[in-house]
């Protein structure tokens, strides 16, 4: 995997908010895998094999006259992306008890110290959706629970549930790079009992969980919620994120149709992380 060739886009965005969040969401749906936010720009990465010169055709915000967005792109090898990430990645602390840091950061005294090297994977805790999902997990009693982290990226959410006492945990991502990276991070945090799989909801057949976490995007969630509900134990919890405030009604309607109850949601810069129970 170290020889993977990626295309790096550099977008300069004015004004940066909320345009950068909208841009990242639209690029994610177009197949871009990873993002680095700088003070005045957004760097976006997609594997060369998944790229074409018309990849930005359906990125609607680029034609929005309320924002000034310019871009260029180039080929980049994975090692160079790692160097870019290391220059920009700062540790974060969630609710004063959970630290997400890189191997080269010094630890501090917190209850949950998670070491993540994301490489090309999503899930450092910096993005609003990951941050809010971490907050949800910190409020849940997961001791001895069975957990699914769907679209696991770096595996950070699965790792936090393990640190909080969950004992039977699956982490699934459709992307091979994320699968390999999650395995590395699970080992790095000495949580080898987390099972990491490459695939999609087809892997959920005949599986049951007390907690299902899915931080993906609106369209995939809407398609896959029925499979999540089918795999959710009685009195189970479903945490969903990766969508905007305006999408919450649509997501909730789908869950209610399947007899889940909306309990609450967190909101951060127009991103939402919602909690449902059955």
List unreliable stretches of 5+ residues: none
Number of helices: 7
Cα end-to-end separation: 41 Å
**CATH fold label of the largest domain:** Rossmann fold
Structural class: alpha/beta
Major sheet: 7 strands, mixed
H/E topology pattern:
EHEEEHEEEHEHEHEEHEHEE
Structure characterization notes:
The chain is an alpha/beta fold. The protein folds into 2 domains: 82 residues, Alpha-Beta Plaits; 157 residues, 3-Layer(aba) Sandwich (Rossmann fold). The protein contains 7 helices and 14 strands. The protein has a 7-stranded mixed sheet with strand order 10-9-8-11-12-14-13, with helices on both faces. A 4-stranded antiparallel sheet has the order 2-3-1-4. The relative contact order is 0.12. The mean pLDDT is 90.
């Amino acid at each position: 995997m170290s020889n993977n060739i990626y295309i790096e886009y550099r977008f300069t965005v004015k004004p940066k908010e909320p345009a950068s969040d909208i841009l990242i969401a639209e690029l994610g749906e177009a197949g871009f895998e990873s993002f680095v936010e700088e003070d005045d720009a957004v760097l976006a990465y997609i594997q060369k094999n998944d790229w074409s010169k018309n990849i930005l055709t359906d990125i609607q915000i680029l034609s929005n006259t309320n924002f000034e967005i310019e871009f260029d792109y180039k080929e980049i090898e994975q090692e160079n992306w790692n160097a870019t990430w290391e220059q920009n990645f700062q540790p974060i602390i969630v609710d004063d008890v959970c630290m997400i840091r890189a191997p080269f950061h010094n630890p501090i005294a917190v209850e949950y110290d998670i070491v993540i090297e994301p490489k090309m994977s999503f899930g450092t805790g910096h993005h609003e959706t990951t941050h809010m999902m971490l907050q949800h997990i910190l409020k849940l009693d997961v001791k001895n629970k069975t957990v699914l982290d769907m679209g696991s990226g770096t595996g950070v959410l699965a790792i936090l549930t393990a640190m909080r006492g969950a004992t039977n945990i699956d982490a699934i991502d459709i992307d091979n790079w994320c699968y390999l990276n999650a395995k590395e991070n699970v080992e790095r945090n000495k949580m080898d009992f987390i099972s990491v799989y490459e695939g999609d909801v087809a892997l959920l057949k005949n599986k049951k969980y007390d907690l299902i976490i899915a931080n993906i995007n609106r369209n995939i969630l809407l398609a896959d919620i029925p499979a999540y509900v089918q795999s959710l134990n009685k009195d189970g919890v479903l945490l969903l994120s990766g969508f905007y405030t305006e999408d919450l009604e649509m997501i909730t309607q789908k869950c209610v149709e399947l007899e889940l109850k909306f309990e609450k949601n967190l909101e951060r810069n127009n991103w939402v992380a919602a909690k449902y129970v059955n």
